[in-house]
Amino acid sequence: MDFSAIVIIVIIGLGLAIRLMAGACDKERIANHIRSMDGELVDKRWDPFGPGWYGEKNARIYEIDYKDRDGHLHRAHVKTSMLSGVYLTNDHIIKRVSSPSLAEEKADLLKRLAEIERLEGNPAD
């Protein structure tokens, strides 16, 4: 194998390694952004032709699923790069969590109140 072929293979390998490292950093950056909204990142998929791809040189686009603070499951596209932050687009709820009825909520609160009263009556040592 001649020297130019080795150089090409090394450059391709280096490019692939940088892309994989960028993807790992992106996942952490996106997860931190979702956590800052009191949510939880469920899934992340690279979507190179997602919304906003045309004309974008440095940002990477992903389709993500995440749960919000109420437990609803969302699907959104996110654009991110090392320097530009995280931007969500096309965010919509794909699965709503049913809220407990007032009677169920009242029963839970009464159970918690009884537990608190029991603990106050028997203080721990």
Q: What do these coordinates show?
A:
- 43% of the residues lie in helices and 28% in strands.
- With 125 residues, it is α+β, with helices and mostly antiparallel strands.
- The chain has one domain.
- The longest helix has 34 residues, at 3-36.
- The protein is elongated.
- The N and C termini lie far apart (77 Å).
- Keywords: Membrane, Transmembrane, Transmembrane helix.
- The chain crosses the membrane at residues 6-25.
Indicate the topology.
Blueprint: H1 3-36, E1 40-46, E2 60-67, E3 73-81, E4 85-95, H2 102-121
Key terms:
single chain, 125 residues, four-stranded antiparallel beta sheet, 2 helices, 43% helix
Summarize the structure.
This protein has 125 residues and is α+β, with helices and mostly antiparallel strands.
Helix tally equals 2
Number of strands: 4
How many domains in all?
Answer: 1
Q: Which percent range describes the beta-strand content? A: 25-35%
What composes the largest sheet? Answer: 4 strands, antiparallel
- Strand order in the largest sheet: 1-2-3-4
Taking the alpha carbons of the first and last residues, their distance comes to 77 Å
Binned, the helix content reads 40-55%
The value of Rg in angstroms is: 24 Å
**What structural class is derived from the secondary structure elements?**
alpha+beta
Coarse morphology: elongated
What is the succession of H and E elements? HEEEEH
- What do the pLDDT scores average to? 86
Low-confidence stretches: none
Transmembrane segments: 6-25
Keywords: Membrane, Transmembrane, Transmembrane helix
